[in-house]
Each structure stands twice: as structure tokens, then as C-alpha cells.
Amino acid sequence: MLPRIAHQRAIIDRRALADAVAAAFAEQDEKSRPVVVELLRDALESGRAEIARRLEARPSGGSECAQAQAFLVDQLVRVIYDHIVGRVYRASNRSTGERIAVLAVGGYGRGEMAPHSDVDIAFVTPTKPTSWCEQVIEAMLYYFWDLGLKVGQSSRSLDEVVRMAKSDLTIRTALLEGRYVWGDRELYEEASARFWAEVVTGTEKQFVAEKLEERNARHKKLGDSRYVVEPNVKEGKGGLRDLHALYWMGKYIHKVRDASELVDVGLLTAEEYRAFRRAENFFWAVRCHLHTITNRAEDRLTFDLQREVAMRMNFADRPGKSAVERARLSDSCSISSCKQNRWGR
Predict the structure, then answer these.
(1) What is the number of other CB atoms lying within 10 angstroms of the CB of residue 12?
(2) Domain's final residue, options 200, 216, 234
């Protein structure tokens, strides 16, 4: 469940958008698709503009920006699903197999997205997808693509979800962050229960070992240093992905729902958790500014972007230190305080 977003309707008014989509379909029926796409695109663009305004007003509000972006995508997914299931492929007497649960997975599932992050979605069906399920899923994907969203998607039955998660670490990690967005809620609950009972239980040590090995390989690929001149704030050593890996391991072992619960289970002290949150918020702010400046999914803090990001985050020049140097110092302090947690020692 996403945290409460301030002034949600200023980002997107789902009810008003759904009413406009319904009116367009009532007037033009199947010929309404271009109008519906335009309505959705306008909502996406105005939502992004509002989130960008909030980031500009509060440049250090990285986590709020990331959560607001996930909220915006949630509402669009819901409107699209309801439109397709309720009008385009309406079926008054669906069979038990004609059910779909729409899950957010990966970073989207965690409820955190940069402005141009991929939209990672899993469509879960009770058994092998029926023709109706395939039509609905395909129609949804076409709407996402028409909106210019980069979608990472999967369509699997319950049994396939379990089988694939057991055999693939990436899929298992993505599902670990799985979150219900829309569709059949009972189907989602069943998928979640089977994931924890059949995939997670008994594999905790293996997961931690594989995650640490994966982390080491990623560090080696990207230079194996926290102090590179053009860091990747998402994948680089000491960056967002490392913070996420800490949370994934804690969640996998203790089944926590939020990073704050790592304190309750004894994996972090209260001070270490505060350092975790400061570092996470800082990196999200940098990443959101990068996406906003470049208008694309850019996670590398290159020389040509460093000064603009520093200035946007109010790191002004001071005698003896440039804005970029002051931002780097803040970055280093966040990393240094956070890395002292029990997994980093």
C-alpha cells in the first residue's frame, strides 16, 4: 500500500478522468480510442508537471517525488483496466478462469519511481490465460505503449508464478516487492500466500548468499568504488540499489512490509534506520532531478549534469568549495553513516 500522497487530486483526479473516458466511449464507442489515449496522455503529462513543481519547491524531497510518481501510474493503470474490462471487452458471465490480478513489482511495487522509470507490471491469472484474459492484457499494454511508458511486463498463471520465482533470482526479487494495484484481489492474495509459503520458506540463506554475490558482481562491473567521478546513483556502489538490497534481505528473512520494521526485528538500530532513510531520500532526490532535467531515464551523474543538479538541490558555491563539492560531501556523509549497519560491517 502506498503512503498517503498530499493533495492527490492535484496530481491526478482518477474519478474525473474515468468519467471523461466513459463519456468518450459512450459518444463514439469503439472509435473513441484516440480520444481516450489523449485523455490519458494529458493526465500523465499534467501529473508529471505537478510532481516536477513539487520537487522544484522542495528540492530535497526525493522520496515524496518517487512515491507521487508511483501513485500517478497506479491511477492510470486502474482507469485503463476498468475501461477495458468494463467496456471494450465486457463479459457479463465470466468463468472462474477469466480473472486477472494486476500487480506492481520491482521498484514500482515498492511504491517508488523516478519520473521516467520503467513500469514493472505482472498480470496473474488463475490458470493458463484464456482468450479473454489475453485480449485484456494486450489492450492494456497497447495503452501503456501509446502513452510512451516503458513497460516491463509478465503474464503468468499462479503455478507459473511459483515455478519461475523458484528458478530465477530476478523474478523472485521483483515479486518480493509485489503489490496489488487492481483487478481480482483474491487472486493477488492467493499469489502472495503461495509466494511466501512455497518460494520463500526455507530458502532464506540461499537468497542472502545470492544477493550478496549479485551485489559484488554489480560493484565490480561499475568500478567497485563509492568514489567515482561520474557515479550511477541507482546501480553504483553505495547507491540506491545497495540500500534496496539491504531491505530485500531483511524482508525475505523477517517478512517485514516496510524498512522501518527492520528496527523492530533487530537488524538496524533506530540511528542506523534514520541514516538509511537520509541516504535513500538523498539518492531519490538526485535521481528524480536527473530524470527531470534530461527528460529520460538517466541515472548517471555525469559532469555536465552535476552542477545543475547541485544548484537545483540548493548546494550553492561557498568559499573554498563549489556547489558540486558540497553535494558530493553530503552524498559521502549519507553513505558513510548508512554503511555502518550490521550488513556492511
Answers:
(1) 25
(2) 200
223 and 193, same structural domain? no
- Provide the phi-psi class of 314: left if phi over 0, else alpha when psi is between -120 and 50, else beta: left
For the cut 50, the answer to whether the pLDDT of residue 41 exceeds it is: yes
Q: pTM here?
A: 0.90
The answer to whether residues 223 and 193 belong to one domain is: no
Same domain, 84 and 228: no
Non-local CB neighbours of 191 within 8 Å, separated by 6+ positions: 101, 103, 124, 158, 161, 178
Tens of pLDDT, residue by residue over 291-343, are: 999 999 999 999 999 999 999 998 755 544 554 554 444 554 444 444 444 44
Residue/partner pairs of 219-224 with CB below 8 Å, 24 or more apart: none
Question: Identity (one letter) of the amino acid at 327?
Answer: A
Q: How far is CA 281 from CA 146, 245, 335, in A?
A: 31, 16, 12
Residues shown for the chain: 345
Confidence band (pLDDT; 50, 70, 90) for 276?
Answer: very high
Buried b (16+ CB within 10 A) or exposed e, 214-245: ebeebbeebeeebeeeebbbbbbbbbbbbbbb
Instruction: Express each pLDDT in 172-220 by its tens digit.
Output: 999 999 999 999 999 999 999 999 999 999 999 999 999 999 999 999 8
- Whether the CB-CB separation of 253 and 203 falls below 8 Å is answered with no
Give the list of residues 6+ apart from residue 172 with CB closer than 8 angstroms, or none: 165, 166, 199, 207
Cα 26 from chain centroid (whole Å): 34
Query: Which residue matches cell numbers 500500500?
Result: 1
Cα separation, 248 vs 80, in Å, equals 30
Q: What is the mean pLDDT of residues 157-165?
A: 97
Residue-number span of the structural domain to which 315 is assigned: 204-338
